[in-house]
Amino acid sequence: MIGLALGIGFLATQPSCRPQASTDLWSLLETLRQCDWIDLTHPFEPGIPHWPGFPDEQREQIYGFRPGEGRLGTGFLAHRYCLVGQWGTHVDPPAHFVEGLRTVDQIPVTEMVLPLVVLDVHEKVQQNPDYTPTLEDVRRWEARHGPIPKGSFVALRTDWSKRWPDPKAMRNEDARGIAHYPGWSLEVLRYLYE
């Protein structure tokens, strides 16, 4: 699958969905409206799967439509949310892992719209929940689609999202409490980076 990653969690996928040569923004918008859109986000609410080191989300209705529904008043609906920044569908900026590197506000939106490459390993994950992609998986993709474009966003299709929103199914712990789920292999990350 080749598409265009737009923002966080949405894909425009359709062979006829190609931006026109025109630089007219409205023409581009009309082209994009004709595409099939796939929402990759999940709703968030208390109890959704999350890293066990983080507390669960808390929410409170502070305004409601009727008297007594909101702690602060009535006339409209508003909630107060308390959650960790790594909650739900999100972007991990470099500063999440390395002190002093860029935070999300320092990443231009132009760096967030990228060519999309999807390595589909979901069948292998069905056989081995700890599966990580190999260079052979990448070579197979490139044999079919050509070299991975420089600067692409490479996504891994595992179908692990089908376990959502069950936290136990997502963690997939064995009898010793060790979680088993797919991820990236170092050899593929090195290949994609270099």
Please give a structural write-up:
With 194 residues, the chain is of the alpha/beta class. Among the domains are: 46-88, no CATH class; 113-194, no CATH class. It is 20% helix and 20% strand. The protein has helices at 25-33, 122-127, 135-145, 167-171, 186-193, and strands spanning 2-6, 10-13, 36-39, 58-64, 73-74, 78-82, 114-120, 153-157. Strands 3-2-1-7-8 form a 5-stranded mixed beta sheet, covered by helices on one side. A 3-stranded mixed beta sheet has the order 5-4-6, with no helix packed on it. Mean pLDDT is 89; it is low at 1-9.
Task: Give a nutshell description of this structure.
The protein is 20% helix and 20% strand.
> What separation lies between the terminal Cα atoms?
22 Å
Output mean pLDDT: 89
Listing every helix as H and every strand as E from the N terminus to the C terminus, the arrangement reads EEHEEEEEHHEHH
Question: In angstroms, what is the radius of gyration?
Answer: 21 Å
The share of residues in helices is 10-25%
**Which of globular, elongated, flat, extended, rod-shaped describes the shape?**
globular
The poorly predicted ranges are: 1-9
Strand order of the largest sheet: 3-2-1-7-8
Strand residue percentage: 15-25%
The largest β sheet comes out as: 5 strands, mixed
